[in-house]
Amino acid sequence: MPAPKNLFKQALKEGRAQIGLWQALANAYTVEISAGAGYDWLLLDAEHAPNDVPLLVSQLQAMKGTASHAIIRPPIGETWIIKQMLDIGAQTLLIPMVDSREMAETMVKAVRYPPHGVRGVGAALARASAFNRIPDYLPTANDEICLLLQVESRAGLEALDAIASTEGVDGVFIGPADLAADMGYLGGPGAPEVQAEVEKALAKIQAHGKAAGILIGDLSLAKRYLELGATFVAIGNDVTLLANATTKLLDDFKNAEAAKPPADAKVY
Ligand SMILES: O=C(O)C(=O)C[C@H](O)[C@@H](O)CO
Fold first, then answer.
1. How far is the CA of 33 from the centre of ligand 1 (A)?
2. Is the separation of the CB atoms in 196 and 224 below 8 Å?
3. According to the model, what pLDDT value does residue 39 have?
4. Active site members
């Protein structure tokens, strides 16, 4: 029995758009709720959310058997962190802040077992191999890992051809918030100058035959990126959804009129 088939990776290879939702509430309960909504993927964020390895395990477990594919974003692209994320069972990783071919090649090696990489062999202890109950996990794991790299700086854009053409990189994600900040538009990913670079980058990634991805809360922009060929697009995040909904409910209540009882209402 081989490593589980990575259907998300397969969908990207076939050019089938995958719609995602960012998860930053760092708990299994809300991830399970989000997974029930039917998103193609959920991003479990360990860069900007208070996620540690045990919490990520609980979120992966909450997603098991749902239609949503789990993608983990580690806090940084470090080989030892990637080893842990793969061993707990993530098959798709989104690595932040990649800005050179050298880093892209290092990440490819980090997600592969020798001789094609340097991933440490701990499958006998790992959730990834169903605790060693997948007898052929070691020889089949590499092929079912989907490696997505984030380009989100001017240096990254400069190196985009090199990054996207690196063998073993399955997709490149443009981080609009950090790219905007690095371009001098902190808090303004919608600035025309930033949007122009985003669209050029999405085209360049596809020119190398790789999947292009992005996160954007503006649904019309999300649709535009899909029309431009992006195939893994996140359209929101759990924190903002919860914060906005709770604020709106109280505002709505404060502004609501009390219902007027029907004229013939009997008080007793
Ligand atoms: O730079 C970006 O944009 C991203 O990488 C996504 C953000 O990190 C996400 O947390 C929303 O702000």
1. 22
2. no
3. 98
4. 48
